[in-house]
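Running this now, will post back.
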Amino acid sequence: MSDGNTHSSNGSKKKSVLDKVIQLFRPEPKNKNDLVDVLTDAQSRELINPETRQMIEAVLEVSEMRVRDIMIPRSQMVTIDRNHSLDEFLPIILDSGHSRFPVINEDIDHVDGILLAKDLLAFGFSNSTEEFSLHNIIRPAIIVPESKKVEPLLNEFRSNRYHMALVADEYGGISGVITIEDILEQIVGEIEDETDEDIEEDIKLLANNVYLVRALTELEDFNEYFNCEFDEKSADTVAGIVLQELNHMPQKGEQLTLGHFDFKVLIADSRRMQMLQVTVDKKHKINGKLSD
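Update: finished.
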């Protein structure tokens, strides 16, 4: 009798757990929206945490994206001219902080290959008198169409062990570039590396009247700190007023003057600004602090 009761009790517990799982996925999702509802319900039941739900939803979104949706446009590509000497293009590599560069011939529509910055190390530590040749160290360029789905491209990146592909439009011209990092950031969010600026404050004094400002600093805080009156109804952040004035996503190094302030974009990608350098007119008096 005792054994029978124990078995019945365990069976009841197993059934209870199974019922919960079945209940979670019933009714069976018929489309993406139904599946998102299931994930939201799972989070509310504390079966998954919010970060897990967001990541799964991001994977669902990536599965529907095409390369054109997340590529870096050609106007923002950092390239190396095959006809330039090492002394000429090395500053470009050091300034950009990137690890891979399309090598072009004549113009951006004629790409000879991809240069990996690490392949230059051998020439920096070698005593060889052999003349440097960019042609000898560049790797083949992978070209994909704008219309290609992002999900299979990610699989190709992983299986073929390459991290960058050039994007071609319907006429065969180069319209941009895409990296494995661009895809992963759609799923897990921004990936910061050693070259990204790391400051704790939204506003940091660099020297005299020059400041480092996070692009997403609240405009209200910016106005208070710098004693100015940018329209807080037209934009929520400093990035907002810069975008509003330029009417396009600025590239790294792009500059803009608004009143007593010179803005220079220090860090940006194809989707967002991250860091700005703000130089204040010496005649303009600032508060230099925020109220508690």
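The longest helix spans residues 2-24. More later if anyone needs it.
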